[in-house]
Amino acid sequence: MPIQRHETDIPVAALLVAAGRGLRAGGDAPKQYRLVDGRSVLAHALMPFLAEPAIAQVSVVIGDGDEARYADAIAGLDTRRLATPTQGGSTRQDSVRRGLLALAASGFDGIVLVHDAARPFVSPAQIEAAIAALGTTEIAAIPALPVTDTIKRTDAHGHIAETPPRDRLVSVQTPQAFRFRPLLAAHEAAVGARMTTFTDDAALMEWAGHPVATFPGDPTNVKLTHADDFLRAGTRSAASLVTRVGTGYDVHAFCEGDHVWLGGIRISHDRGVLAHSDGDVALHALTDALLGALAEGDIGTHFPPSDPQWRGAASARFLDFAADRVRLRGGRIDHLDITIVCEAPKVGPHRDAITAEIAAITGVREDQVAIKATTSERMGFTGRREGLAALATATIRLPEQE
Ligand SMILES: Nc1ccn([C@@H]2O[C@H](COP(=O)(O)OP(=O)(O)OP(=O)(O)O)[C@@H](O)[C@H]2O)c(=O)n1
Ligand SMILES: C[C@](O)(CO)[C@H](O)COP(=O)(O)O
């Protein structure tokens, strides 16, 4: 697994706490496992962390008995940087502490981003802002938003006791960024001092005497807390993403050989294909379709044929890159449609395997992948069995603000 580093070369880990019971939200399952726009809240929250190149490791803290729900939630995600989940505690504070201890046991040290699984709308920009805000000098940095309502403190009878001046009040969110060792030490010290009612990790760091910096939060990065939040979440999620469609086309000529690669599958054939990479026309067309939907150039822009490192490369790498770009931009893939044009080899017997392979590479369900094939009725270069062609269409959704 390639471990990518923060620009200061300090390893960065993300810790998502998902062990709460969601009592205020109600429902049949803890809120992080409920679906918003076809995906669990936890999957929404995880995806931008899994796609962030600066993050080397993502750990999730889950509730006792939630193992099957967790397995369902992460199915189809890119789990290469996802650690085995840790069992949480009875409070958020205890769950974070347990997650930190598991990270320490794995030998981790560096920067940790602590995020609520109940905040599914976290953007790649907020994750990058958290890392940047910590920079090389801060110990803690948290996203903060100025409050727009007047905030009051009440007494035990519900009467107003105080109206603090609003100009310095902020409401804070996650992801909160910390130097790992001081955060773990603060958590351990708090347990030792029986200080167990902190509602965020920054409050723990304040208690331990550390300065906590702020950076601008994101009003859309709400925490789903009450049942009504789910009604608003469905609307927000659908409204904030716009549909983009991209198309791709690729051809390769046959040459001497005994197999071709099609849709990530090696198929025995009496010809090979002339290509710099493995010559998989289906994956090349699909990569271009995704890059087209993103308006981020084409396969040659990112993987120039003049670059020797791509000689013989598995085209799954190109497709994986394009699918990661969608996630990194906070988007999602809705549908992938491919038509392969050739007289031979026959695609039908391999359709299911190709579908499964493309779904696995791109992190979508198999029912979001359509594989079709046709001959060109013996006309043209495919009809004369001189080569293979593929066309692809990718439908994705991207955040509107982009
Ligand atoms: N024992 C706990 C309690 C909370 N959390 C996590 O901390 C985040 C913020 O907590 P909150 O919104 O309070 O979630 P719940 O505790 O699940 O909600 P409730 O208080 O309504 O039961 C959530 O991602 C939640 O899963 C956790 O990991 N372990
Ligand atoms: C961490 C947090 O999301 C920051 O706003 C918040 O404090 C969590 O509070 P809760 O009591 O767990 O809902």
**What is the helical fraction, as a range of percent?**
25-40%
Shape: elongated
Strand content is 25-35%
**Computed structural class:** alpha/beta
CATH fold description of the largest domain: Spore Coat Polysaccharide Biosynthesis Protein SpsA, Chain A
Q: Which compounds are bound in this model?
A: cytidine-5'-triphosphate, the ligand C[C@](O)(CO)[C@H](O)COP(=O)(O)O
Overall mean pLDDT stands at 92
CATH architecture type of the largest domain? Alpha-Beta Complex
Stretches where pLDDT is under 50 for at least 5 consecutive residues are 1-7
Strand element count: 19
Radius of gyration: 25 Å
Biggest β-sheet description? 8 strands, mixed
CATH superfamily of the largest domain: Spore Coat Polysaccharide Biosynthesis Protein SpsA, Chain A
- Figure out the total of helices: 12
What's the end-to-end separation, in Å?
A: 30 Å
Which CATH class of the largest domain? Answer: Alpha Beta
Q: What is the count of distinct domains? A: 2
Family: Belongs to the IspD/TarI cytidylyltransferase family. IspD subfamily.
Organism: Bosea lathyri
Protein name: Bifunctional enzyme IspD/IspF
Keywords: Isoprene biosynthesis, Lyase, Metal-binding, Multifunctional enzyme, Nucleotidyltransferase, Transferase
Written account of the structure:
With 402 residues, this protein is α/β, with parallel strands linked by helices. The chain has two domains: 12-239, Spore Coat Polysaccharide Biosynthesis Protein SpsA, Chain A; 242-399, 60s Ribosomal Protein L30, Chain: A (2-Layer Sandwich). Helix content is 31%, strand content 25%. The protein has helices spanning 41-51, 67-74, 92-105, 124-134, 180-192, 201-207, 227-239, 281-294, 299-302, 316-328, 351-362, 380-383; strands spanning 12-18, 35-36, 39-40, 57-62, 86-87, 111-116, 140-146, 153-154, 160-162, 170-172, 176-179, 213-216, 241-255, 259-262, 265-268, 272-273, 332-341, 369-374, 387-399. The strands form five sheets. Strands 1, 4, 5, 6, 7, 10, 11 and 12 form an eight-stranded mixed β-sheet that branches. It has a five-stranded mixed β-sheet with strand order 16-13-19-17-18. A two-stranded antiparallel ribbon has the order 2-3. It is elongated, with a radius of gyration of 25 Å. Bound molecules: cytidine-5'-triphosphate and the ligand C[C@](O)(CO)[C@H](O)COP(=O)(O)O. The site of cytidine-5'-triphosphate has 23 residues, from strand 1 and helix 3. InterPro entries: IspD, IspD/F, IspD/TarI, ISPD_synthase_CS, MECDP_synthase, MECDP_synthase_CS, MECDP_synthase_sf, Nucleotide-diphossugar_trans. Its EC number is 2.7.7.60, 4.6.1.12. GO terms for molecular function: 2-C-methyl-D-erythritol 2,4-cyclodiphosphate synthase activity; 2-C-methyl-D-erythritol 4-phosphate cytidylyltransferase activity; metal ion binding.
